[in-house]
């Protein structure tokens, strides 16, 4: 009898070749690094178990292959469909939590992280404190907001000098500038650097909920799962400072629709913020105070953050 259907230790006959998965794992050569060996062995095991448990057919597997191929074909420097596909399945949020969570013995916590998302762009304009990231035409359409706060070390409470704050959000039509030919290049994006006092401030808009692009594989998955594509209103941040672990995060308008059912599962309680009506400033209708707390590489390592090395922040 062939290995298919062989009995294992006298127990119930195994429906599929019982040694197949291990033989695929064993094919890894001696020069593979320990981490590559660990990750691929686990991936192969889970993939094979998934196929066996669900009795995956060739047609169903091929649908998955086509979904990945289509995501690849759609992706370019302005669209990251592979990442979006991961996002609707909650994978980026989970990996973010695994990578940045501090061990629970910390007295205080640095600002919580949230996914980078597929709309980040490098080289946003460097702006002076107090500048506006909104193009003039866009500014007439939204709720003008003055955002400000202080960035401190989460263990000492001291302000941090030299933090580069990278900020980005959508226009009132729910589109990031690279999705919208009517917006100027780098609209609603900017970088600011803190001085000795660790303070920052700039003008932006109160964001709006928006649907993630659903004309590709991620949209097909959402449709098949009977889910909507909307994200609650949020502003993205990437904070970097010498000696500190970078923070990738988003803050969410507490009163926004979809706070309870974000299509990409990124909302955390500590990242909910309140936009306050603001008077006395001709440039703003709302005020948004928010302080960030960063962890030094040393503290991050002490508290067991995965990958908390100087290199990981490069
Ligand atoms: Fe976003």
From TrEMBL:
Signal peptide range: none
Cofactor(s), by name: Fe(3+)
Coiled-coil annotated residue ranges, if any: none
UniProt GO molecular function: catechol 1,2-dioxygenase activity; ferric iron binding
Domain called Intradiol ring-cleavage dioxygenases: residue spans: 116-294
BP GO annotations: catechol-containing compound metabolic process
Keyword Oxidoreductase: yes
InterPro entries membership: 1_2-HQD/HQD, Catechol_dOase_N, Intradiol_dOase_C, Intradiol_dOase_core, Intradiol_RC_Dioxygenase
Chain ranges of the Catechol dioxygenase N-terminal domain: 34-102
Pfam families: Dioxygenase_C (PF00775), Dioxygenase_N (PF04444)
Keywords: Dioxygenase, Iron, Metal-binding, Oxidoreductase
Family: Belongs to the intradiol ring-cleavage dioxygenase family.
PANTHER family with a match to the protein in the record: DIOXYGENASE, PUTATIVE (AFU_ORTHOLOGUE AFUA_2G02910)-RELATED, INTRADIOL RING-CLEAVAGE DIOXYGENASES DOMAIN-CONTAINING PROTEIN-RELATED
Record's protein name: Intradiol ring-cleavage dioxygenase
